[in-house]
Amino acid sequence: MVATRMIPDFSLSPRIDQVGVEERAARFTKRSIKNETKLNGLKLALNMIDLTTLEGKDTDGKVKQLCYKAMHLHDAYPGLPTVAAVCVYPSMVKIAKKALEGSGIKVASVATAFPSGQASRDVKIRDTRFALNEGADEIDMVISRGKFHMGEYNFVFDEIAAIKEACGEARLKVILETGELVTYDKVRRASDIAMYAGADFIKTSTGKISPAATMPVTLVMLEAIRDFYYKTGKRIAMKPAGGISKSKLALHYLVMLNEVLGEAWMNNEWFRFGASSLANDILMQLMKQKTGVYQSADYFSID
Question: Is the pTM of this model over 0.90?
Answer without folding.
Answer: yes
